[in-house]
Design goal:
Strand content: 25-35%
Strand order of the largest sheet: 1-2-3-15-7-17-4
Order of helices and strands: EEHEHEEEEEHHEHEEEEHEEEE
Number of strands: 17
Number of helices: 6
Largest sheet: 7 strands, mixed
Length: 273
């Protein structure tokens, strides 16, 4: 399997034909793995994703792919005046499904339509962010537990382009508070990483709220600093898969009139199927 490095982490290749154990190892070694220029049907894309684990349909069910509910459509296109997908999904640093009790192992994006400008994804390496903590701060957070809920801690304005995708009343009822360690041992590699210190973390167990937010914000500033970041640009047909247990990621905004469409599948940490 021929890989090209993207930076201090991340790798790309032009073929999906390698035996899956090689892809599995390459993925967890790189954290972000890109297969350039693929041509996949929805069924083939879903079959590939299922090798990594059980897909979990997104709570926003109105934008599920009409053939496969496990595929979420991300798009700024409209048909008959109605959006066909989520237009501004995840435009802040976060970890997918960190608001669920069993979080996401991997997220896959298949790039159907690429805008002329923007639409990149930013990734931040949380292995490196943990390793780079000052010793005193590392000791402070080592055993702390974060309190998570669906949303973006930094933007609760439902009219904002950087708010978490707005849920219906029924969808909100499906969401609950969950607990995750702030320093989390990776379930596959065993390495320690900061976990979801930006995005869905709204408090710290046993800590006054103002102190908790101050600490989470300090960790977020550290964890998303430029030294830990990778910017990924997409081409048509690219399949991107990233490791949610060791990364934060953020979409970048595009202009509404500049078409962009992707298919997203997220698989949970419950094992491969």
């Amino acid at each position: 399997m021929q890989l090209r490095k993207l930076g201090s982490f991340g790798a790309e290749t032009d073929s999906m034909e390698a035996p899956f154990p090689q892809i599995w190892d390459a993925f967890f070694g790189a954290q972000v793995l890109v297969f350039r220029g693929q041509e996949l049907s929805p069924s083939a894309y879903l079959a590939f994703a299922k090798q990594f684990g059980r897909p979990e349909p997104h709570v926003i069910d109105q934008f599920h792919h009409r053939e496969h509910a496990d595929i979420l459509i991300l798009s700024n296109r409209q048909e008959n005046g109605e959006p066909i997908g989520l237009a501004d999904a995840g435009t802040y640093f976060h970890t997918d499904y960190s608001y669920l009790d069993i979080p996401a192992r991997a997220t896959l994006l298949y790039s159907i339509e690429v805008p002329k400008k923007g639409g990149d994804t930013l990734f931040a390496d949380q292995y490196a962010a943990y390793d780079g903590l000052p010793a005193s701060l590392r000791r402070q957070v080592e055993s702390l537990v974060g309190l998570h809920h669906y949303g973006n801690r930094d933007d609760l304005d439902k009219g904002s382009r950087t708010v978490a995708s707005v849920l219906t009343e029924d969808q909100e009822k499906k969401m609950a508070w969950v607990r995750h360690p702030i320093v989390r041992k990776h379930p596959v590699t065993g390495r320690k990483a900061l976990y979801s210190v930006s995005g869905s973390s709204f408090g710290i167990e046993g800590m006054p709220q103002d102190e908790a937010i101050d600490l989470l914000d300090e960790l977020k500033r550290h964890a998303t600093s430029d030294q830990y970041q990778l910017r990924l640009k997409y081409g048509v047909g690219d399949v991107v898969i990233w490791d949610n247990a060791s990364l934060l990621h953020s979409a970048t905004l595009t202009e509404p009139e500049d078409p962009r469409t992707l298919w997203r599948i997220t698989v949970k940490e419950e094992g491969r199927t």
